[in-house]
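quick one
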Amino acid sequence: MAYYHRMGTIPPKRHTQFRQPDGSLFKEEVVSSKGFSGIYSILYHIHNPNEVKSIGIPKPFSWKPATDHGLNQTHLKTSDVQFTGEDYLDARRNLMMNSDVMMGICSPRKRKMEYYFKNADGDELIYVHDGEGVMYSQFGKLEVRKGDYIVIPRTTIYRFEFEEEGPLRLLIIESKGAIETVNRYRNEVGQLLEHSPYCERDIRPPHELHIEKEQGDYLVQIKKQGMLHQYSYGHSPLDIVGWDGYLYPYALSIYDFEPITGRIHQPPPVHQTFQAFGFVICSFVPRLFDYHPLSIPAPYNHSNIDSDEVLYYAEGEFMSRKGIDRGSFTIHMGGLPHGPHPGTVEKSIGAKSTDEYAVMLDTFKSLQITTDALEFVDENYPMSWTE
Ligand SMILES: [Fe+2]
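structure w/ fe (ii) ion:
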């Protein structure tokens, strides 16, 4: 993360004696990225984080690309899906993937996780499409609500407790590289600049430390190389009395993203919200349309010669599309042009604003849909530009 944060009690000097009330030392853990060259935080545990009680049999946890889907403009109709599985991990349905990123949905029947999860393979970006709750992690308590992006750095140990009432639908992106704020919106020390669509005030780090002191049986499921490794401890992994640093999970609401508009159509980079190795994430939010007297608010046809473009339609009516519902995905693949559906260009002329919300994933390597996605494919979509 781009700014320093601290919570709880920490010693005045790092790597020095910091004692518990009974005289024993707190156990210091440096959680660092890019070896010792990236962002890091220093955590103080009550118990030794290496004190493993038992290791169970790992469970397979991976997705396969649907290799025969081919070059097709793709619409995945996932709007009617109510539940995707029993609990948080079981309910994860990755729908598209390449070697840098996976993206999918998660609507678990069980709202409260009875275990902890650690993704050791990559950073996670969770967009809360529906639902609200609390994320408990080693870094504290973070309240999450509809419209939030939650950025979770790899190795963060966490569990969610979502409210029992109302729908729950998460869009989950897993990235091999770190998920970061956008370089061109930061100054040389990392502060978000004046032209950034959001700033530090919009970023919500954990707001309250959450310390679990009771001894017991604590299961941490660790995702590593396509498996869920089953690690049991006699103490909670959330036994942190204090931490400080730049590495921690945080939330940013799509409702706090300030759109950049212009006299003529603005390209997708103005909607960019996050960057990572091999892809970008953009947010389409309600905004005033272009104000040149002859402007065309709908986008032009375009060919992405070196990227695949995924849109997840969150709210409102998407002006350039027909037959798309809330919760639909479209994947417009590099190698084919794409653009507004027939009639939508003319219809957009004179429109003053849009109320749409959408999350976009633009990848620089080709994506493949997974075998899990095949049941959602709208077979008519590739021909939907022909009247
Ligand atoms: Fe596009």
